Amino acid sequence: AATLEGTGLASNRLELEITERTFMDNSEKTLSTLHRLKQLGVCIAMDDFGTGYSSLSYLRSFPFDKIKLDRTFVSDLTDGTEHVVIVQAVVSIARVPCSAPRSRPTGCPN
Predict the structure, then answer these.
(1) SS3 for 66?
(2) What is the pLDDT of residue 101?
(3) Which residue has the higher pLDDT, 46 or 79?
(4) Fewer Cβ in 10 A, N or C end of the chain?
(5) CA 66, chain centre distance (Å)
(6) Ramachandran region of residue 8, left (φ > 0), alpha (ψ -120 to 50) or beta?
């Protein structure tokens, strides 16, 4: 909060990316920090989802504004591959927060 005030940057103009690995390493402390940042209006993105021991439950544990899938899931998307099913599942779960009460802060970039 002090840094945002000191720079004069509107919180909804700041987007922070967190990797899946960082999220998993200390999830309680990380979740607490992310929730505080989110309350300030900062946009939070999950970066490179799918690079580690991914669990779709991570996507439900925090209302991410963006989810960036690892390129290995999207580089060879063709009908019938298991990657299509995985990407569809992630997109389906990711859409839920947008319609729920915990939607993205006003002004957060898409």
Answers:
(1) strand
(2) 41
(3) 46
(4) C
(5) 4
(6) left
Q: Report residue 57 as tokens.
A: 């439950």
Q: Is the pTM of this model over 0.70?
A: no
The secondary element (H helix, E strand) that includes residue 16 is: strand 15-19
Tell me the pairing of strands 66-69 and 15-19. unpaired
* Partners of 47 in the β-ladder: 19
Report the distance separating Cα 51 and Cα 67, nearest Å. Answer: 13
Task: Tell me the pLDDT tens digit for each residue of 85-99.
Answer: 777 777 776 665 443
| Whole-number Å distance between alpha carbons of 30 and 64 | 13
For residue 30 the two structure tokens come to 């990380």
Question: Within a 10 A sphere around the Cβ of 95, how many other Cβ atoms?
Answer: 10
If you search the block for the tokens 């909804």, which residue do you land on? Answer: 12
* 41 has a pLDDT exceeding 90: yes
Q: Which of 8, 28, 3 is closest to 16 using CA atoms?
A: 3
Instruction: Report the C-alpha gap between 92 and 29 in whole angstroms.
Output: 27
